[in-house]
Write the structure tokens for this entry.
Amino acid sequence: MIEQLTNSISKYIKLSSEEENLIETFWTEKTLQKGDYLLRNGETCRTDNYVVNGTLKAFYINPETGKEEILYFAIENWWATDIESFQKQSPSIYNIQAIEKTTLLQIHYHSFKDMLKQIPKLERFFRIILESYLGSLQRRIILNNILDAEQQYLDFLKNYPKISEKVPNYLIASYLGISAEFLSRMRKKIKAS
């Protein structure tokens, strides 16, 4: 399993076999069953989490409506972490839950810091991952402000085809900020055209 992570890292930086072996010592495997929580609102995010397989959702419960609002999904080769909670070791304001059986590689906060000290070039890898995540968040904010719901849905299908295959439509609707019924009507309209 660690090979999947080192292969992902190797797309961005070159690792020696010694570094690959050293990386392995910092990570542990964890399996979540469908419905299990990786993180709950109010808990401190103690681990950075690389998804080996499976699917997770990060969500917030709107205190006014009581509805679940999806922040992001994480599938194979993605990361599922509350970055602010992990970096500051402070309570999280959202939840991360398995949508299906999910296997993760986890690294604890202090181990993460030790790993970066011992293999400084990993700083570059994690910077690239964070830049990519930030870029996708910025894009989502902009598109939410300029596209209507149908255009947002079509953009989601185009940019996240693997997620749209794995995630139930009611969760996609939550991610898009629309009702499941509206998404269903929109899907019928798109298929008919």
